[in-house]
Specification:
By secondary structure, the chain is mainly beta. It has helices at residues 54-58, 134-140, 143-153, 302-316, and strands spanning 3-5, 13-17, 31-34, 43-49, 62-64, 67-68, 73-79, 82-84, 87-89, 93-97, 106-108, 115-121, 130-131, 172-173, 184-188, 203-208, 217-223, 228-230, 233-234, 239-249, 253-255, 258-262, 271-284, 293-294. The strands form five sheets. Strands 2, 14, 16, 17, 18, 20, 21, 22 and 23 form a nine-stranded antiparallel beta sheet that branches. The longest helix has 15 residues, at 302-316. The radius of gyration is 19 Å and the shape is globular.
């Protein structure tokens, strides 16, 4: 089920681009889209900031006070610079963050090109900010604040986790790097040569997040120029898909910042990487529908490779605390 906050979903399949309205007319006001399970599925945030003025460039970044989220979360940058604690993120760089772990202030630095980034919360019940400052946290968890959140989000957020609940520890990934003491790992498409290889010559990093049975799957995929990125296929889940670099050739050409949402059961056409290759992000809202059903030939074995990786990650979930 796909629904959104402050945006009327136009149907079972629709495009949203950082290069076009309505997103590029909402500087500082994200579009938040719920996909997958209607209670514990992910909330996908599309955050756009217009190019900064000279006055903004000369000033400080607008940062949220140090906080945590009681859910696994993910963020990736396309344009601009994102600050999270002491870390700085730029084009193609991303952060995987475990549930309930506090980290520093975060936000976007003023940038001449503006800021485009995707931030998503693996379990919408725990998306809200929990400040580390006790006074701010008490304010954020007050009955008035919770009631205002319910009013703003409506049916997109039927349940909010209690303030003392740290959420579900459900993050397992093929990214072969150690997690920090703050429970996060940083990675980048610049490191794609170290990721598992696919039959099309591409590379992929896959992550399970959130609730163990219905949480989302994150697929970061690099496909060489002219190769089939994905065959014509159908997922049994809602899927959000974004071009991070290069271009995707399908029903039309899609460039960096172009995204598409499709409901479960809506067929995806074959996608071919453009002349400069293709870096992309796929968020499968509900892992129960993550194994793609190929509609025709899959000469590279992409679907089988993805399914095998998912099976391995599911096995690794047993090493984490129970959901």
């Amino acid at each position: 089920m796909i629904n959104a906050v402050g945006y009327e979903v136009p149907g079972e399949a629709f495009d949203l681009s950082y290069r076009r309205p309505p997103l590029n007319e909402r500087s500082g006001v994200p579009i938040l889209v719920g996909i997958g399970d209607p209670v514990a599925g992910p909330l996908v945030g599309l955050f756009y900031d217009a190019p900064s003025t000279p006055e903004q460039l000369a000033g400080p970044p607008d940062l949220t006070p140090a906080h945590s989220h009681p859910c696994d979360n993910f963020r990736i940058v396309m344009v601009g610079e994102l600050w999270v604690g002491r870390e700085r993120y730029h084009h193609g760089e991303f952060r995987l963050q475990r549930s309930g772990r506090p980290y520093g202030s975060d936000g976007d630095a003023p940038h001449v090109d503006g800021n485009w980034r995707v931030i998503f919360f693996a379990d919408r019940r725990g998306h809200r900010v929990r400040p580390t400052n006790r006074e701010l946290r008490a304010q954020a968890a007050s009955p008035e604040a919770i009631a205002a959140t319910h009013e703003r989000f409506g049916d997109v957020l039927p349940v909010i986790l209690p303030d003392e609940d740290d959420g579900v520890d459900g993050l397992v990934t093929t990214v072969d790097k150690p997690f920090s003491k703050q429970g996060h790992v940083d990675a980048s498409f610049a490191e794609a040569d170290t990721w598992p290889q696919l039959g099309n010559g591409g590379r992929v990093a896959v992550t399970l997040m959130g609730v163990h049975d219905v949480g989302p799957v994150v697929v970061l995929q690099r496909t060489p120029a002219g190769a089939v990125a994905t065959p014509a296929c159908t997922f049994g889940s809602d899927v959000a898909r974004f071009v991070i670099a290069g271009s995707a050739l399908a029903d039309r050409e899609r460039l960096m910042g172009d995204g598409r949402f499709q409901a479960a059961g809506v067929p995806w056409p074959e996608v071919v990487a453009g002349p400069d290759g293709l870096d992309e992000l796929l968020i499968v809202g509900d892992r129960r529908g993550a194994a793609p059903q190929v509609d025709g030939a899959d000469d590279t074995g992409w679907a089988a490779s993805l399914t095998a990786i998912l099976d391995d990650l599911r096995d690794r979930l047993g090493q984490l605390a129970p959901a």
